[in-house]
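TA notes, week 10

Several of you asked for a full example with nothing omitted. So below is the full record: structure tokens for the whole chain, then the designed sequence directly under it. When grading your own attempts, check the secondary structure regions first.
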């Protein structure tokens, strides 16, 4: 159970009734820059990754936080990501951890710049046994 004692299914079934009060809380939280204390609480549960359940090394911690707090996290993440992508911090060449971009696309883009560019590029070989 989550720290607020509310099951996510209850939130989903009451979404129309909760939409207005939660939007007011989200707006006040956004303007004040503070998150309600209860949304910061979490229950940490051990979850077995794989293998023998008797081995403590096979478990990883999972934090169960409140559903409204997780929704607020998504709002904040979306706002920060949008700000960074609108020319305030991420160059088009940065691909890591961005939606729709991968390391493979970055390598292909780099390859294209090297082999199809009119600019002079020099590559320095590096021995594989030294690439630790």
């Amino acid at each position: 159970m989550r720290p607020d004692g509310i099951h996510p299914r209850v939130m989903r079934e009451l979404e129309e009734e909760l939409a207005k009060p939660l939007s007011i809380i989200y707006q006040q939280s956004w303007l004040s820059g503070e998150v309600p204390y209860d949304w910061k609480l979490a229950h940490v549960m051990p979850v077995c990754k794989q293998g023998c359940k008797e081995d403590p090394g096979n478990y990883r911690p999972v934090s169960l936080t409140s559903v409204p707090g997780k929704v607020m996290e998504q709002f904040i993440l979306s706002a920060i990501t949008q700000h960074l992508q609108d020319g305030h911090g991420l160059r088009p060449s940065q691909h890591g951890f961005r939606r729709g971009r991968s390391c493979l696309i970055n390598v292909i883009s780099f390859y294209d710049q090297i082999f199809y560019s009119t600019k002079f590029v020099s590559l320095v070989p590096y021995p594989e046994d030294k690439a630790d």
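The longest strand covers residues 42-48. Use that as a sanity check on your answer.
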